[in-house]
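Quick one before lunch.
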Amino acid sequence: MKSNAIFLFLASLWLMHDQAYGQYEYEYVPMDSFDLQKEILIDEINTDIAAIQSSLPRSSRDELKTILNYKAELLARRLKSNHFINDGELDQLVGKVYSEITTKNPRAGYPTRIMISRSPVPNASCWGEGTMIINLGLLSRLNTESELAFIMAHEMAHQLLDHVNEATLSAIKRRSDRGLKRQAKTYGKLDVMKEIAYDDARYSRIKEHEADSMAVVLLRNTSYQWQVYERVLDMLDSADYPETRERPDLKSRFDFSKYPFKDKWLEPPHSGLGRSSNTGLFSADSLKSHPNIPKRIAYVDSLYGYNAGKKSYDPSHDRIASSLQQRIDLEMTSSTFVINDYAKSMFYTLQMLGQYPENKFLKTHLARLLVELYLSRKNHTYNRYVRISNYYPKMMEELFIFLNNLRMSEIAKLAYNYINRDAVFDKTNEEHYFLLFIISTGLDNLEVSEKVLTAYKNSFPNGQYLEAMKL
Ligand SMILES: [Zn+2]
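Model of the zinc ion complex:
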């Protein structure tokens, strides 16, 4: 009996291991967006914003109201464009941490809505009206629940200490009335407000210190490890360089017997691609706006230093299930696509293909990306999908240069050669016929287009792409 129990225990460990590493070998199903809940969430946000606006003191500036309206609009727009993920497993993780912090620290004023953004930027934010946003890019960097708990507690502290609206107000105050009016006249009021809402409303170093130390205070009452702060802050400091990720090998991925890789595709441009010369090609991400991270660690150390005989952070203690971590890594490929950042989507897809070379979703996704990139070159919308944003880790530079060097016909040939191979083309997948049809038609290879169309009609007489596949 006893040996049986041990056997079952070992067998279940093995199954867990197998599940973590085996289940994504061939398939991946992307995470959902909100469906009918979108409108409910938008209503909630508007109600919360109206409540804040009505309780603002008479003396407070009209600008703050405008900025709050702008925030509501922006959140609504993002909800409508599927910027947020609706996923049971992620909700469960975040909900568990949220309820541990809030039930062990009962008080009013916590954020009431937590939404998971598809953004790859390793960041979280509080919007001041009750919304807390956690980015997928942050979740992809976390190893334990304690790490997530510290970040959530830090953002909660910004809200509890009313830092969000304070930061906005002081940003407004820093600009004189005349200056504000002049800018509004030149750039339009909304643009000036947007700038204040984003660029100027960063927290001061003192507020970051306050949020860090309050996060520790909140975590000390929970089952999580408050000592985690050093690990998390270090991670944020190095977020540009995800240490677990490998740089994709473009040359071997896009080298085909009938269309060999060209080294000139990797040559950096003679003039910068960046928006202005002094920010360079790749500007720092938003986390760099945080005050100097070592100073933040030293400050919390000075308050709660745990070296004196206390237990230190144990990264094996409350680990996030490795199957969920794998799922988050895979989701980066799809989420960046949903938010129209095709360059990053390709970066993550190539990385994941290195890990799961036979994954059908990833193979299809790379084909889809190449065709979409070809179509956007054709429609002169390429810059919308291959763009420099605030977050651009150095590791992505090569891919970005590659994508910027490719001409329309070159992308088409790469797409054609990638899809039109036994290793990739899947006769049971309708989308593959459609993609190959688009790209062979684009290359004026009508012989192939006709063959693909005939094969498609034979295999899928009522296929969903029939309407779109017309010669
Ligand atoms: Zn902060």
